[in-house]
Design a protein that fits this description.
- By secondary structure, the chain is an alpha+beta fold.
- It has three helices and five strands.
- The strands form two sheets. A three-stranded antiparallel sheet has the order 1-2-3.
- Strand 1 and strand 2 form a beta hairpin.
- It is rod-shaped, with a radius of gyration of 32 Å.
- The mean pLDDT is about 80.
């Protein structure tokens, strides 16, 4: 009789699986972090773009409120006081922490607001800051009893 005879169990696979779960876990965790990074940074990018658009709208509104009141009171129609409009628009942009431009024509103000977004997670793999712009236009109109004047229905 032989002692300690080792007989392989045909139901048991002798391959060594040690570490297989660890490799899978590392790969799965990496993919998960990539997806979370894309989600976080994409939402931050969209938020920054929406903020730039909102600030440009509000700056255009603030600039358009710099109407040339004496001209309007003389019945000469709506117009923008260019110097006051540019000053009001730039003040709004700087108060919101953004840079941009304010352009004025006879009865229209166009504001472009610029913002920058630096990726939080994807910045770790080399994606740098992105510059985003929002542009809006406001027009001064004349209204009488809530009805815009000078526009054909």
């Amino acid at each position: 009789m032989r002692r300690n005879e080792h007989r392989p169990d045909p139901a048991r696979d002798d391959r060594d699986d040690a570490g297989a779960v660890s490799v899978f876990a590392v790969i799965a965790a990496t993919i998960l972090v990539m997806f979370v990074g894309v989600a976080v940074d994409l939402s931050g990018l969209v938020h920054t773009l929406e903020r730039a658009q909102d600030v440009s709208r509000q700056a255009a509104r603030a600039a358009a409120e710099a109407a040339d009141a004496p001209r309007a009171m003389r019945g000469e129609g709506p117009a923008v006081d260019s110097a006051r409009a540019v000053q009001a628009g730039q003040l709004y942009l700087s108060t919101a922490g953004m840079t941009g431009t304010v352009q004025v024509s006879a009865d229209t103000v166009t504001v472009s607001a610029s913002a920058s977004y630096s990726p939080v997670i994807l910045g770790l793999v080399g994606l740098g800051p992105r510059s985003l712009n929002g542009t809006s236009t406001a027009r001064i109109t004349q209204a009488l009893q809530g009805v815009q004047q000078g526009v054909q229905p």
